[in-house]
Every structure is written in structure tokens, then in C-alpha cells.
Amino acid sequence: MRINRIKLCDFRNLCQLELTLCEHANVIYGDNGQGKTNFIEAVWMFTGAKSFRGAKDQQLVRFGCAQGTAEMDFFAGEREQSATLTIENRRSAVLNEIPLKSPTELAGHFCAVVFSPTHLSLIKNGPQEKRKFIDTSICQIKPKYIHMLSQYNRVLDQRNHLLKDLQYAPGLMDTLDIWDQRLAAFAAVVLKTRASFVQRLRPFAQQTYAGISNNQEVLDFQYLSTLECDLEKDIPEIEKQVFACLQQQREEDLRTRNTNYGPHRDDIEILLDGNSARVFGSQGQQRSCVLSLKLAECEIIKETIGEYPVVLLDDVMSELDEKRQDYLLNHLKNRQLVMTCCDQTNLRGLQAGVGIQLENGRVANYQEFSF
Pairing between strand 310-314 and 275-276? Predict the structure, then answer.
């Protein structure tokens, strides 16, 4: 999978930008505020996901403009394809000249993994960011999971409303079992899917971290469920266990008027040499942990769809030593890399690819590198 050409019009601070990318490493450099991260964000939007920066759709349009557009020609599924995003109050998408009902339908057609400094929150912050990482990753290889997760969150919201209403309408208590059954059904699928994904992710992440760290440290992680369930069982059995747990915890849920246990409260424990990466990891180690998770996601996508996704790395070079930088620039074989940095000196270690300098959202310099 690779991007051949991308054209942006009134996307963030990018008034008019058109780039042709190579199949190896594409290093986009320049001072802060020149549009590098905006370019990475635009590419990411073609996965069908929301902005990895948490922006609303209308915030993606250049200030003072009615709409923004992004066009991309790419190779995927053994054929040339094209996609267009139009952004006004919300996004609309066209794939191979066919309008889509929703931009989320792009999921699975163009795949990418993205790293930005905001993703360090995977290590530094609480469980929510880790759950988001897992769910976003799964959606690329199992687009139907988007619907399943949405259904779980919908039923969870309705159950929470019921828990709050019971103080005013105790007669509704008889309906709680119905909502518990519905929640358990969706929760079982979410739990099984997440746990299976983490199991697949672990060996790839460990191998990648060994390469990044030159075998100096060992990465490990595991999925931590707030429910007492055996996630190695099949989905019907997990569903029974989830329902039983909801029954056991009902008194606490009634007291707090909230669903206190379930996939919406789960976590992933990330360890370096057996110690918490959040507590004991340095900035460089934490960055390497997140990179390993992201690059392991690449391997799972490759294993699932038969081709590597595009790798998007935003401001990844800072706080990495030369060996770790070299690994990213020159050892991610058979996949297209789009990377941003501020320092042009990072290009000195590039063996094959292009260096693109951006100034005020425009190309100021384009340089090719070859073996």
C-alpha cells in the first residue's frame, strides 16, 4: 500500500499543496508552524477515522474558507485507486468516483498507522488512550467492529440513564435485567476482540522494540479487564460471565448510578523489563514503546489484508538516539514511510527516499536520496 499523489486545498493552513511521494521514506521537514503535522493529519483522514489530534471536522478547514478538500491517488488491493474528502461542517467522501454514505466506509480500503507526540499519552495518561489505540487499530482490520463498539456504547449510555432514573421511578428496576443482557452481549464481543488483538500484537511489538533498543530492554504488555472473565473462552461463555459480573456488581452500580465495570473501564499494562513504563521509563523509552506498538500494528494489518499500511510518523526523531533514528529511517522495509521533523540534519542518515521542505504550507525544496 502506498500513496502516489496527494493534493490539499484549504486544509488547515495548507492553501494549495500537491505532493508526489516515493515508495520508501518521505521526510518532510521545516520550522514549526509550516504545515507538517497538518499534512500527516490529512493523510490519516483517508483511513476513515477521525483526526488523531481530536479536532472536529469544521476545525480542519482553513480559517475564512467555506470548505476544504483532499484528494489522494494510492495503490492498494493490487490496483490503483483514488479518494476525495470534502470538509464543510462535516466530512463527505468519494472512493473511486463512487460517493460513500459515510467517510468511515473508507476503513479497510486505505490503511495507515500514525504516531505523533500526542500518542505518548498511551504511556503517560490513563486507560482511555490505550483503549482508543486498540479500538482504532481493530477498526482498520475489522471495519464491522466500529458498529459493534457503537452498539456497546449506546446500550451502556442507556443503562447509565436507567440507573439515574431509578431513584425517581423504582418501578423501572424490572427492566435492568434486559439492559444487562444486551450490554453483556456486546461487551463479550468487544472483550474477546480486544484481548485477541492484544495477543496478536505482543510478539510483533516485542520484536520491534528489540530492534529499536538494540536488544537492550524487553517490552511486555497485557489486557486488564475490570470484569472477572476468562477471555480465552468463546464469546457465548464470556457473555454469561459478563452478565454474572453485572449482577454481582449491581448494588455498587445502583449506589453510584453508573456502570462501574466493563470494557469502557479496561486497561492495558505496559512494562519494560517487568517494570511500569509509565513510572520508570525515560522519555526515549516511552517513545520507543509507543513506536513499537504502532509498528506492531503494521504487522497485524499486513498479516490480515496482505499488505503493509502507510506509516505516518510526526516529530518522531526528537529524544531518539542515532541508532533508533537509523532503525526508523532505513530498516522499515517494504512499506511507505511519511515522517516529519524540524531538523534537516536528520536527512543525513537517509539511504533511500525524498526530503521535502515546507515553508508556509508550500514546498520550498525537494531532494531525492538513493542507495
Answer: unpaired
pLDDT band for 43, please (50, 70, 90 cuts).
very high
Instruction: Please identify which residue in the block is written with the cell numbers 451502556.
Output: 156
The set of residues, in sequence order, having a beta carbon less than 8 Å from that of 269 and lying 6+ positions away, is 221, 222, 224, 276
Q: What is the CA radius of gyration of the chain?
A: 22
Other beta carbons within 10 Å of 9: 17
Those residues with Cβ within 8 angstroms of residue 201's Cβ, 6 or more apart along the chain or in another chain: 137, 293, 296, 297, 300
Residue 82 — φ and ψ, nearest 5°?
-145, 150
CA distances from 79 to 93, 103, 251, 308 (A): 19, 21, 56, 14
Tell me how far apart the alpha carbons of residues 208 and 303 are, in angstroms, rounded to a whole number. 15
Q: Is the model's pTM score more than 0.90?
A: no
Residue with C-alpha cell 473511486? 96
Q: How far apart are CA 280 and CA 88, in angstroms?
A: 44
DSSP helix/strand/coil, 108: coil
Q: Which three cell numbers stand for residue 3?
A: 500513496
Give the strands of the sheet with 310-314, arranged side by side.
112-115, 310-314, 337-341, 25-29, 353-359, 362-369
CB 22 within 8 A of CB 80: no
Q: Give the Cα separation of 84 and 26 in Å (integer).
A: 22
The CA distance from 122 to 274, in Å, is: 18
Which residues lie below 8 Å from residue 57, measured CB to CB, with a gap of 6+?
87, 88, 89, 90, 91
User: Containing H/E element for 93?
Assistant: strand 91-95
Longest dimension (CA), the chain: 75
pLDDT digits (tens, 9 = 90+) for 297-356: 999 999 988 999 999 999 877 767 777 777 777 777 788 999 998 877 767 777 778 889
Instruction: Please report the DSSP string for 12-67 in residue order.
Output: TTEEEEEEE--SSEEEEE-STTSSHHHHHHHHHHTTTPPPTT---GGGGBPTT-S-
Produce one character per residue of 273-297: b if its CB has 16 or more CB atoms within 10 Å, e if not: eeeebbeebeeebbbbbbbbbbbbb
